[in-house]
TrEMBL record:
GO biological process: DNA transposition
GO molecular function per UniProt: DNA binding; transposase activity
Ranges for domain Transposase IS116/IS110/IS902 C-terminal: 236-319
Name of the protein described by the UniProt record: Transposase, IS116/IS110/IS902
InterPro entries: Transp_IS110-like_N, Transpos_IS110, Transposase_20
Signal peptide region: none
Source organism: Vreelandella titanicae BH1
NCBIfam families: transpos_IS110
Organism superkingdom: Bacteria
Domain named Transposase IS110-like N-terminal: residues: 27-165
Pfam families: DEDD_Tnp_IS110, Transposase_20
Length: 362
């Protein structure tokens, strides 16, 4: 049975997750879009196989077939790991995903090529030094990626709207206060500029916004439908938080996946980028580090939720004022986001709706 251990550091706090389990064969794959470099070691560390093959399931299965007995396959987390994980699941092969940042820190060396990298991955697995990343389950993975794509397109739409505002200012025209989400507002901008080339530039923005508005409304409906099929309980619980609507609930739901993968609320808060890690040495503190390690989508969701929670909520505004007695407003908002993140962890873990009275008084 595969096990993983969390190696403690000298302060008694937990650090990186390492895969510590013995197998008969250890397979490290240096993964690329068009090719794979495969290395298989035995329990004694002897190289049984070291070969480059096309990135296709059939050649890979043919290559590793003699070593399928107690085989573990590990790859570094990069953009094309999905099909390898699905291949291993279909073939009943144990699969682990390596944390790209920590792997670079552990096995970064002077010499680097595909052959060396595949051997190092296999050696890390065999030696119990393979840093684990979360291999997101196949069942919800495509929906999460679609949600992330939707977020990216919405942000691009905001850039297009900003371009319209900037162009209006460039030509010293009155500020345009219309809501570009409305069809009539977009049509109105079609008669704003005298220069036909400038007007064509704005028309291009409007055409893209029109396409986004039409397509994203359908995408959001599909995402909500999938959420009610994948995790209906999570989705219902998240929408009980004041200010958390459909998109924030979907973002938290699909970025978390399964709340049980987090052993404690502290680990969940760290993964969500809601806490800062002190950099200490020789009893001195040198600020913080590792603030970008974690899930940027959850960081955004909880930051947005904190701001929206304050709207029309006197109790929440009093809580923020209490925080501001000890810190700046920016830090107080971060503290509120952290508090919301902790609440979400226990809500999902215990399957309880949001208790606002308890939240404001605890």
């Amino acid at each position: 049975m595969a096990k993983l251990k969390r190696r403690p550091n000298l302060t008694g706090e937990d650090s990186i997750n390492f895969y510590n389990s013995t197998h008969r064969h250890y397979c490290g794959i240096d993964l690329h879009a068009r090719s794979l470099y495969v290395c298989i070691l035995d329990q004694q560390g002897d190289t049984l196989l070291h070969k480059e093959i096309p990135a296709k399931p059939e050649p890979l299965l043919h290559l590793i077939e003699p070593y399928l007995d107690e085989l573990i396959i590990g790859v570094e987390c990069m953009h094309c790991w999905y099909w390898i994980a699905d291949f291993c699941e279909d073939q009943g092969i144990a699969f682990i995903l390596g944390h790209a940042l920590y792997m670079k820190a552990i096995h970064g060396g002077k010499t680097k090529n595909d052959r060396v990298d595949s051997y190092k991955i296999a050696a890390l697995i065999r030696g119990g030094n393979f840093p684990l990343a979360y291999a997101y389950p196949r069942r919800m993975r495509a929906t999460r990626d679609l949600l992330r794509r939707r977020t990216g397109l919405v942000r691009h739409g905001a850039d297009l709207k900003a371009h319209v505002v900037n162009t209006t200012s460039q030509y010293n025209l009155p500020p345009n206060k219309v809501n570009l989400k409305n069809v009539s507002a977009r049509e109105q901008l079609g008669r704003t500029f005298d220069d036909p080339l400038v007007q064509r530039n704005i028309d291009l923005d409007m055409a893209v916004l029109e396409c986004y508005h039409r397509e994203l409304s359908q995408v959001e409906w599909l995402l909500e439908k999938q959420a009610k099929k994948h995790q209906p309980t999570y989705y219902h619980l998240l929408t009980t938080i004041p200010g958390v609507g459909r998109i924030l609930a979907l973002t938290i739901l699909y970025e978390v996946g399964d709340i049980r993968r987090f052993e404690s609320v502290q680990k969940f808060a760290s993964y969500s980028r809601l806490i800062k890690c002190k950099a200490e040495s020789a009893g001195k503190t040198y600020g913080t580090q590792g603030n970008k390690i974690g899930n940027a989508h959850l960081k955004w969701a909880f930051s947005e939720a904190a701001v929206l929670y304050l709207r029309g909520n006197p109790g929440a505004q009093k809580l923020l004022q209490r925080f501001q007695k000890r810190m700046s407003k920016a830090k107080a908002l971060s503290a509120l986001a952290h508090k919301l993140g902790r609440a979400v962890y226990f809500m999902l873990k215990n399957e309880k709706v949001f208790d606002e009275q308890r939240f404001l008084t605890s």
